[in-house]
Structures are given as structure tokens and as C-alpha cells.
Design goal:
77 residues, mainly beta, 1 helix, globular, CHAP domain-containing protein
Length: 77
């Protein structure tokens, strides 16, 4: 994969357009299972419970919204 920034996907389960909250499921490679988690693109730097962490490195933590790149359409993949 090299330096490909698009190395992780999630499937959107629900969206609250008013608050900006998005619930999604993804394979959490750190915990080794499928998780339902939350991110908020209106408040990307706000921590839990508004945004779940996607990076757990000792150097830094990044929320899902901070690492978000784009939406896609699953049936066109």
C-alpha cells in the first residue's frame, strides 16, 4: 500500500445533519473487531464522545473526523 492515504473505509449507518454526527461501522484494527463508532465533521477536533479515535499512537491521537477524506458509494466500488 505504500503511502496511500486512503487505506481504511467505514460504512455510514446514520447521519444527523443538524448536529453533524455520523455513526459508522468499520474494522477496528487496533481492537481486532467490527465496531460502531461516531464522528462529527462539524467538530473534527473535539474528542469523545463526539468523535472516536482512529489513531492510537503514543506520539499522537487522531479522531475519525480529523482523518476523514471523502464519502463514496459502496455499490460503485
Amino acid at each position: 500500500m505504500g503511502n496511500n492515504p486512503l487505506s481504511h473505509i467505514g460504512i455510514v449507518v446514520s447521519v444527523d445533519k443538524k448536529s453533524g454526527s455520523i455513526d459508522y461501522v468499520h474494522n477496528n484494527t487496533y481492537l481486532g473487531d467490527i465496531r460502531r463508532e461516531t464522528m462529527n465533521l462539524y467538530k473534527p477536533h473535539e474528542k469523545r464522545p463526539t468523535n472516536n479515535y482512529m489513531r492510537y499512537d503514543n506520539k499522537y491521537k487522531k479522531t475519525a473526523a480529523e482523518l476523514f477524506d471523502s464519502f463514496g458509494i459502496a455499490w460503485k466500488l
